[in-house]
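Fold this sequence, please.
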Amino acid sequence: MWLEPAFMLAMLALLVGMSSLFVSWSMWRRSQRKLDAMSRLMRELTRTRDSYRKQIDELQAANIGLGNKMSDLYHKQDRLSEQQQELALKDPQGKLYSRATRMVQLGAGIEEVMAECEMPRAEAELLIALHGKP
């Protein structure tokens, strides 16, 4: 019975089947380990992506805040410029004093300042004393 060809053939088929089963199980195990490693990597990449997304959201919020602050500053600057122009228009005498000061700094004499800026001698003398070259 042990040496009969049918028995030998059946044993050989059983041996091939078991070998195939072992090889299949080994390949399945290897693919499971790779799948587990890929799952861990995917979880880590997801955490990293979420962290970057949070940082981007924070940067966008900060950027919006800075944009709003810059807009407010531009509006304030515009208002201050308008107020400065209004003050300059309301105080024509201030223009004369500015002009007289510049003239004194450039070396103009008392008579020239009095004539050009229509100011009294005492004021011209004061400007020359304050802003004249030593």
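Residues 20 and 110 are 117 Å apart (CA to CA). Residues 91-134 form one domain.
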